[in-house]
Amino acid sequence: MIKVIIERVLAEDMESTYDNEIRKTLAAIMTAKGYISGASYTNVDNPNIRTIITDWDNVGCWNRWYKSQTRQDVNKAIHLMLKQDEKIKVLMSQSLS
Protein backbone atom coordinates (compact mmCIF):
# COMPACT_ATOMS: atom_id res chain seq x y z
CA MET A 1 0.00 0.00 0.00
CA ILE A 2 1.10 3.58 -0.65
CA LYS A 3 -0.01 7.01 0.54
CA VAL A 4 -0.22 10.00 -1.73
CA ILE A 5 -0.06 13.45 -0.15
CA ILE A 6 -1.11 16.43 -2.24
CA GLU A 7 -0.60 19.93 -0.92
CA ARG A 8 -2.37 22.84 -2.54
CA VAL A 9 -2.17 26.56 -1.83
CA LEU A 10 -5.37 28.32 -2.82
CA ALA A 11 -5.62 31.84 -4.15
CA GLU A 12 -7.35 34.31 -1.83
CA ASP A 13 -11.13 33.94 -1.39
CA MET A 14 -11.26 30.59 -3.21
CA GLU A 15 -11.90 28.40 -0.15
CA SER A 16 -15.63 27.77 -0.60
CA THR A 17 -15.30 27.33 -4.37
CA TYR A 18 -12.49 24.84 -3.81
CA ASP A 19 -14.55 22.92 -1.25
CA ASN A 20 -17.32 22.45 -3.82
CA GLU A 21 -14.90 21.29 -6.53
CA ILE A 22 -12.95 18.90 -4.30
CA ARG A 23 -16.18 17.01 -3.61
CA LYS A 24 -16.40 16.25 -7.34
CA THR A 25 -12.81 15.00 -7.34
CA LEU A 26 -13.37 12.78 -4.32
CA ALA A 27 -16.52 11.32 -5.90
CA ALA A 28 -14.61 10.51 -9.10
CA ILE A 29 -11.60 9.03 -7.32
CA MET A 30 -13.77 6.45 -5.54
CA THR A 31 -14.22 4.64 -8.84
CA ALA A 32 -10.47 4.52 -9.57
CA LYS A 33 -8.91 1.06 -9.61
CA GLY A 34 -6.72 0.55 -6.55
CA TYR A 35 -8.09 3.50 -4.57
CA ILE A 36 -8.55 2.54 -0.91
CA SER A 37 -9.43 5.69 1.02
CA GLY A 38 -8.75 9.38 1.32
CA ALA A 39 -9.43 12.57 3.20
CA SER A 40 -9.06 16.29 2.66
CA TYR A 41 -7.60 18.56 5.36
CA THR A 42 -7.43 22.30 5.96
CA ASN A 43 -4.36 23.79 7.62
CA VAL A 44 -5.50 25.26 10.96
CA ASP A 45 -3.01 28.13 10.69
CA ASN A 46 -3.77 28.98 7.06
CA PRO A 47 -7.11 27.90 5.54
CA ASN A 48 -5.73 28.52 2.05
CA ILE A 49 -3.43 25.51 2.43
CA ARG A 50 -5.19 22.21 1.75
CA THR A 51 -3.78 18.72 2.02
CA ILE A 52 -5.29 15.59 0.54
CA ILE A 53 -4.09 12.20 1.75
CA THR A 54 -5.11 9.09 -0.17
CA ASP A 55 -4.28 5.40 0.15
CA TRP A 56 -3.71 3.22 -2.93
CA ASP A 57 -2.99 -0.45 -3.52
CA ASN A 58 0.26 0.38 -5.30
CA VAL A 59 2.14 3.01 -7.30
CA GLY A 60 0.80 1.67 -10.59
CA CYS A 61 -2.79 2.32 -9.51
CA TRP A 62 -1.92 5.85 -8.41
CA ASN A 63 -0.05 6.58 -11.66
CA ARG A 64 -3.01 5.34 -13.71
CA TRP A 65 -5.32 7.70 -11.83
CA TYR A 66 -2.84 10.58 -11.93
CA LYS A 67 -2.52 10.36 -15.71
CA SER A 68 -6.20 9.64 -16.37
CA GLN A 69 -8.46 11.90 -18.37
CA THR A 70 -11.01 11.68 -15.55
CA ARG A 71 -8.54 13.23 -13.07
CA GLN A 72 -7.60 15.92 -15.56
CA ASP A 73 -11.25 16.76 -16.13
CA VAL A 74 -12.28 16.96 -12.46
CA ASN A 75 -9.17 18.89 -11.46
CA LYS A 76 -9.32 21.46 -14.27
CA ALA A 77 -11.31 23.95 -12.19
CA ILE A 78 -9.19 23.29 -9.09
CA HIS A 79 -5.96 24.14 -10.86
CA LEU A 80 -7.39 27.55 -11.78
CA MET A 81 -7.85 28.29 -8.06
CA LEU A 82 -4.28 27.55 -7.03
CA LYS A 83 -1.76 30.19 -6.10
CA GLN A 84 1.08 27.81 -7.05
CA ASP A 85 1.50 24.33 -8.49
CA GLU A 86 0.36 21.51 -6.26
CA LYS A 87 3.03 19.42 -4.52
CA ILE A 88 2.65 15.65 -4.62
CA LYS A 89 4.47 13.10 -2.48
CA VAL A 90 4.10 9.36 -2.98
CA LEU A 91 5.07 7.40 0.13
CA MET A 92 5.61 3.68 0.62
CA SER A 93 5.73 2.13 4.07
CA GLN A 94 8.83 0.28 5.18
CA SER A 95 9.09 -2.62 7.55
CA LEU A 96 10.60 -1.57 10.87
CA SER A 97 11.72 -5.08 11.81
TrEMBL record:
SUPFAM superfamilies: Dimeric alpha+beta barrel (SSF54909). Signal peptide: none annotated. Transmembrane segments: none annotated. It comes from the Bacteria. Residues 1-75 form the ABM domain. This is ABM domain-containing protein.
